[in-house]
Each structure stands twice: as C-alpha cells, then as structure tokens.
Amino acid sequence: DKRKDAVKKVIAAMTVGKDVSSLFTDVVNCMQTENLELKKLVYLYLINYAKSQPDLAILAVNTFVKDSQDPNPLIRALAVRTMGCIRVDKITEYLCDPLQRCLKDDDPYVRKTAAICVAKLYDINAELVEDRGFLEALKDLISDNNPMVVANAVAALAEIQDSSARPIFEITSHTLTKLLTALNECTEWGQVFILDSLSRYKATDARDAENIVERVTPRLQHANCAVVLSAVKIILLQMELITSTDVVRNLCKKMAPPLVTLLSAEPEIQYVALRNINLIVQKRPTILAHEIKVFFCKYNDPIYVKMEKLEIMIKLASDRNIDQVLLEFKEYATEVDVDFVRKAVRAIGRCAIKLERAAERCISVLLELIKIKVNYVVQEAIIVIKDIFRRYPNTYESIIATLCESLDTLDEPEAKASMIWIIGEYAERIDNADELLESFLDTFPEEPALVQLQLLTATVKLFLKKPTEGPQQMIQAVLNNATVETDNPDLRDRAYIYWRLLSTDPEVLKVYTSHLPILCLSDIPMTTGYVCGFDRQQKMLFWQRSL
Question: For site-directed labelling of 148, which of 111, 128, 427, 523 has its Cα 20 to 30 A away?
Fold first, then answer.
C-alpha cells in the first residue's frame, strides 16, 4: 500500500508537468507485483518516460515478457498494450514474440488488444511487421468469432493502409460477409471502424449493392451520431449502382429522419452533421427537400451553426418553398450579428440567381432591406443586386433609381465597385450617370484597386454610350490617372488597352467593355493566339504571334 501511494504521488507530479524521470529505476523496481492497480500505475509511468530513458527501459523487458504469459488475461493484455505504447526501437524487437503469442491467445480481450498493438508497431517499424507476418495474422483475425476482435483488426488494418502506399487491406466478397456479420454485435465504435472500411468496397453489381444497403440500413437508427453518418456514407455510395428508382426513393425517405435527428444534438455535433448534410444535399437534394424547416436558425444557435444552416437552406430552396425561405432570410437580415446579416443578404441574392421565377420576389425583399437604411445591409444588397443584374440583363433596371439614393453612404470597396458597375452598364438609362461617376473621380488615386478598375471600365462605357464633352473630359482624366499616376500594373495595362482601342476603333472597344468587364492581358493569348506589348515612347500597343 505504501508503494502504491508513493507511485500515485509520482504519477500526480508527472501529470502536472513536473520532471520525475530521476525516479525511473525505483519505479521500475515496483513492477514485480501481483497488485494490478500498482502494475497499471508503473506501466503508465514507463510509457511516459521510456523515450527519454531508453537504456533503463530495457530493464523492464523481462517483466513485460513474463506478464504476457500471466494466467490473468487482463495482465497479458496490459503488458502487450504497454509494450506497444513504448515507442523505443530497442524494445520493439523484444515485443515480437509476446505479440505473436497474444494474437493467438484464447481470450478475445487479449487478441483485440494485440490487434491494435500491431498498428502501433507498424508505425515504429513497418519492415519488422511485414517480415514477422503480423499483417497476415491481422487478416486472419477478421474471421474471428468475437466481433470486437474483428472490429479492432479492421481498425488496425485501416490505420496501416492509410500510412502505406501499396494495397494492404482489400475487402473481398468473403471478407464482406464476415464484416457484415460482425457489424450487428460490435460496440458502437467497432461499428464505425467496420462501416468506414466497408465504404471502400466496390460492389460488383446492383444486387450486391442492394444486399449491402439492406444490412447497413438498421444502423441509421443507432444512437451514436458517428454510426449514423458512416451508415449514410455507405448507402449513398452504394446507391450509385442501384438501378431501381423505387429502391432509391425508399432509401432517400429512410435517410431523412436520422439526419434530421442529428440536428437536435449538441452544437458541436450539429456542426459536423450540417457539414455532412451540406455535401449530401449537393448530391441528393431530394433526401431533405421537404425538411427545410429544420434548418431554420434558432435564436440560441452558435454563429458557426447558423452559417452552415444558411448554406443548406440556399441549396434546398425551390419554387415551392421560396416564400418561406425569403421570410426567414429577411428576419435574419435584421439581427445584430453583422457577419450573419451579411451572409443572409447574400443568401437572398443567391436564391434570385438560382431560381429565375423567384428573382422578382427576392429583389422586392432586397429593396425592403435597403429602405431600412442600415449601412452594411444596404451595401451587401447593392453587391448582390449587381450579380442579379448580370444574371438577368435588361430585366430589373427600374430599381436603379432606388439604388442611386444610397450612393453617398457607400464606404466598402466591393459595394462601391458594384454600384459603379451598375452605373456604367446602364449609363444610357441614367440621366445623370456622368455626375454620379464624377463623384468617385475626386478620390480615384486613394481608392482600392477593385474600385479603380471598375471606375475605369465604367467611364469608358459611359463615353461609348454618351460621347459628349462631359464624359470625354472624364475619360481623359481617368486614363491619365490610370497610366501616369498609378503603380498598379493591372490598372495601367487595362487603361493602355482602352486608350489604344479608343484611338483606333471605338466599336471594337464596345465589344470588349460589354462582354469582358474585367479584361486582362493574360486573357489575350488564350483567345487570339497573340500576345500584347506596349511601346511607352509611342504610347502604342503592338501585337505579335504567341510562341
């Protein structure tokens, strides 16, 4: 008892970070005991300090070998587990004989512990594991009568496969039957290991795929979230081979309730489930097409859960449920979390781009949000409306006047660039387009590159659509700023291209500015087979055949 108390104090000191390696020899001397609790404490100490004291750790080898033949299966398993955890090369060669015995032990607890030990030994010395035939012994354990031994053998082989370039663990039709049989009797984590390994199996035909799905489907009702997601993964993979539409439809119906149930778990599990659901709805949106309400955000959801729910709602939005979805998004756009509000406004725009029939309703919601006059909401709304204009040209221009009212409040580069693009694109329909663009020219040198590039293109568009004196003076000032006053090569090169095209053939420039809102020199060789250079003395572009 005194020894046990002393070793407990040593372990306590070790746990809080104190260096007790000087007691190594004294602690190792306590190994020769029949007391299981004391033996466990000594083994724990050994695992921690064997790497820093490899020469002294060899003193414990004889005790390990002796314990691996102890009549008590708990001690046999403890010995082989500890030897596997001591990552010292000098000890690994002594581990092989006890490990070989334990892999064929009569007790399943010892066999399952030895299976995991093989994976640890492979990580230390892969060549030794292969030479001593441990991989074949692991594969034999897949046919073991005990499901936990099978599960640990599968886990060990899967871990070895992940760290090996060549195929080590291949599931055959014979192995498949063994794994599916063990699946029903394993612990929950054993089931996860087996299901993850089964996901690598390629079914031979539709009938084989249906048989696998039939055996795996009961796992969808499991209480453990990891088991449910692993089962869903297998079913989705096997559904690719199933030809019967009725079977596929039934499987989609069966998968929906378990996935919905995952959203009632803790926030961390919800997040993992939502990330998986996000992928699932991209491949099979019909699975959760009628369950969009479960993804509506709750007031107490963490922000990372809300963001994932938003993404899924966008993917599940359809003509049938868009009114419900827009109502939710509009509500989210009035919340206090700025990042979440921005994401909600962008979500409305993405729905408009995705669903042509609902675009008008989406724009109505965006206009209502603009009228609230909250600065960051207005700016996000303008950014998404620009994308809607590009998706549906010449359709919703009647709202431009409302957007122009918010011109003075814009202070974010992306919002400014979007508004400038709208003015330039529809310059012929805006009476005072030149005045609106001129308000940005005063601060042209201080603006970010994004705004400068968009302002350059918009001014050129204005001049082409309204070639009057005002726009002519504006374009002269912008081109001068963009070529002489700037250090940005992208801005300068685009300005030179526009300048040269304006001086030769403005009709060609009309095509460029209408179809290439962002024209880069790097685009030219791909489309024409020519590269473009610039003669700075003559202020001329020249073209030559690309090599």
Answer: 128
- C-alpha span between 52 and 71 (Å, rounded): 32
pLDDT digits (tens, 9 = 90+) for 376-412: 999 999 999 999 999 998 888 888 888 888 888 888 9
Tell me the C-alpha distance between 28 and 41, whole Å.
Answer: 10
Q: How far apart are CA 368 and CA 376, in angstroms?
A: 14
> Alpha-carbon Rg of the chain, whole angstroms?
34
- Residue 534 backbone phi and psi in degrees, to 5: -135, 125
**Which residues fall within 8 angstroms of residue 243, CB to CB, at 6 or more apart?**
206
Q: How far apart are the C-alpha atoms of 174 and 8, rounded to whole Å?
A: 49
pLDDT digits (tens, 9 = 90+) for 187-224: 889 999 999 998 888 888 888 899 999 999 999 999 98
User: What are the start-end ranges of the H helices in 284-399?
Assistant: 303-316, 322-332, 338-354, 359-371, 375-391
Q: What whole-number distance in Å separates Cα of residue 343 and Cα of residue 331?
A: 12
Determine the 3-state secondary structure of 542 from DSSP: strand
The first and second tokens of residue 534, run together, are 């610039």
Helix locations, 372-432, DSSP H: 375-391, 400-404, 413-425
Can you give the length of the chain in residues?
547
- Identify the burial level of 512 via C-beta atoms within 10 angstroms of its C-beta, where 0-12 means exposed, 13-18 middle and 19 or more buried: middle
* Residue with tokens 């596997």, as numbered in its chain: 84
Question: What φ, ψ does residue 531 adopt, rounded to 5°?
Answer: -110, 155
